TrEMBL record:
Pfam families given in the database record: Aminotran_4 (PF01063)
Annotated signal peptide: none
GO MF annotation: an example: L-valine-2-oxoglutarate transaminase activity
Class of the enzyme per the UniProt entry, highest EC level: transferase
Enzyme Commission code: 2.6.1.42
Modified sites of kind N6-(pyridoxal phosphate)lysine: 205
NCBIfam families (alphabetical): ilvE_II, PRK13357.1
Organism listed in the record: [Actinomadura] parvosata subsp. kistnae
Cofactor(s) the protein requires to work: pyridoxal 5'-phosphate
Designated name of the protein: Branched-chain-amino-acid aminotransferase
Amino acid sequence: MTIAQKLSFDVQLSDHARTAAEREQVLANPGFGQTFTDHMISIDYTDGEGWHDARLMPYGPLSLDPATSVFHYAQELFEGLKAYRQISGSIVTFRPYANAARFNRSAARMAMPELPEETFVESLELLVEHDKEWVPTTEGHSLYLRPFMIATQAGLGVNYPSKTYKYMVIASPAASYFTGGIKPVSVWLSTEYTRAAPGGTGFAKCGGNYAAAFVAQRQAVENGCDQVVWLDAHEHRYVEEMGGMNLFFVFGDKLVTPALTGTLLPGITRESILELAGDLGLETEERLITVDEWQEASASGDLTEVFACGTAAVVTPVGTVKGADRSWTVADGTPGPVTMRVREELVGIQYGARPDTHNWIHKIG
Ligand SMILES: *Cc1c(COP(=O)(O)O)cnc(C)c1O
């Protein structure tokens, strides 16, 4: 049930915010998702009442009954996007309404309430405005924003979804994914495990998809690879995505990406690259692509580059591919020119070095 209402946020400022010196120490070497800013957003939901108790409050632990639904049945979803400090000094986010829309598509699949898109975006703005000193000034660094929602009803009954929920946003300064140059990743083709099946939750950004993925990621590392590549559930023939990123196959001046069949996560970076391609003189195609085609087109030279894309690492070249019974290298295994061009364009728009002709930039401060 969606109740039309305009929420007003209560603002409770932290009385133990980090000092400028403490903050600078974190920002000098932020890593990823390790340290969080001084505040967080919380909004509660109750069936019949809708969203209520919207607030900005000091960052800190939650107190929840051990029988709380999310701990047992994983009714949870999340989003991920970044606030960037542009060259001009402005603080911006990239396509936050696209994240808001995806949040609600995930919510519908998880039998969770939708949050008005305006409230989603306003919650990000409020947090970033209060913690703006945490938005790094170092080139390539950013403030990673993590909106999420959990089922909060206490009780072990499984016949109905929770009647209460909590939406939150936390924020964490993030270094550039690549320190010391762009390095291609090696990937492991997972034929033993499946990430998502038709009718499942593959298109939803829910924690459960990740819980089921760790064992395959660990197997990838045991096989000497950086990342797992997921294949379709039926035949393990069609390529779906890589870890938490979508894949693009470069055939000369054509970009091919796996079609959204319902088992892939529809990345906002993926969608943006499909829209940007025309500006760069590249053709695009969304279709099914098999592991055999990947291997054969690498051998024939028709496939010139492969890259993965997502908010965290933007664009990452894929160098070598390994499976239970085969392994090969894409082109010469080094980052290709199309990969680097797409990456430069996207990063350029995010940091303000390139014109935002698609109106993707949302200014915060
Ligand atoms: C979040 C995510 C992506 C990338 O989505 P972006 O919106 O581009 O960050 C891709 N695959 C999975 C499984 C994801 O969770």
